[in-house]
Predict the 3D structure of the following.
Amino acid sequence: MFDFADPVLLARIQFAFTVSFHFIFPAFSIGLASFLAVLNAMWLATGRPLYLDLFKYWAKIFAVAFAMGVVSGIVMSYQFGTNWSVFSDRTGPILGPLMAYEVLTAFFLEAGFLGVMLFGMDRVGPKLHFFATLMVAAGTFISAFWILSVNSWMHTPTGFEIAENGQFLPVASWLEIIFNPSFPYRLAHTVTAAYLTTSLVVGAVGAWHLLSDRTSAHARKMFSMAMWMAALVAPLQIFLGDLHGLNTLEHQPAKVMAMEGHFESHPEGAPLILFGLPDEERERVDYALEIPKLSSLILKHDPNAPLDGLDTVPEEERPPVAIVFWSFRVMVALGFLMLGLGALSLVARWRGKLYDWPLLHRFALVMGPSGFVAVIAGWITTEVGRQPYTVYGVLRTVDSVSPLDAPAVGTSLVAFVLVYFAVFGAGTWYLLKLMGTLPHSHEEEPAQTPIRSAGITPAPSVERRGTIPDAEPVDGKA
């Protein structure tokens, strides 16, 4: 079936499939770990059982999402050796240590304190338990730090030289490699996206329960906290996205040209193409809906600033335009919908209708999965826009793949699709089932009485010495 397929394309599809499945779980767990830390802190500060109920509720969901993220990440990492062995060999001296730092710092930190966070509240005390929760949240952020440093270096490589055997060797300070030009922008943009994704999920769960019971204190609290987060983070995310775009224009201009759909250069100001159908063969965007000079205003802060187009880039150096063009628009459109949800929640809060406005609750419910879609769309924009390179401008994708035949890659791809949809489909169903139930109140838990080995509990009047007062005589004996 795969005899005539392109093995490089199949390897790319396989990696894209597995990384897309993997990425949605860290995008959720990064934000959820911090949310759990906030809930734990609020419980310690106020003593209100409501925050403890929400902590225990979301801790179960975090455990499942974290486990699926670890499993999918391990599978993905093996592909560096199976499908991308040349890439691993050549970039190993630089990327290998960075990946090792992620394991030695973030993964060990998470693994060391995760069990205490999930099962140790009644064993280590509330303060030490809160510290463990903070360490898990810190671990998720540190993990994102190292992984995004690796990815950013592949986009803006610095501090290296290429040896005679083709390997990339560090020649400058490791700080120059870690903090490469695109890393701060990518880190801020991605981590903020994770927080926003989590707030939308929490808000959707709260909205779901408010639609059936507006008096639920648990639903009200989680919905209110989520809407505060969305209202504050959505505009920040748009601002960070703009900064990231300007950085990309400086270091990867061809990617921005594809995002904007600019096949032609515009010496007197470029229009912003809202929608259209990119035609890469004819090098134009059909049925384009444009706003004159707005692209120059956004990218150069000058409506008359000239912008180069893909006509200045050799064809073999251009990324696939249609994929980048549409994935970018999906991300941006969802970002503005998130901004609208946050603004609408502020209006509802101001009018005193945050918990009594079904329209807002339905809007929040529909927007629940939008963070995941936006994250994947942004990832596609970033990674497809880097083509035809794995290490931008230095190592091409066709020179990074393992010497595999198409049937071998295609067979494993089919296996991944079947197993992933079965396993992670079941995991996602279980997560939705957990979210579909309201948190339980732990204020009035029944007292646990000792269980006698004989299975008999004496009456309260029985004295410790074992005598039974006022007992009737049996056979003449008391």
About this structure: The first strand starts at residue 160 and ends at 162. The chain has one domain: 7-253+326-435. Residues 7-46 form the longest helix (40 residues). Residues 7-253+326-435 form one domain.
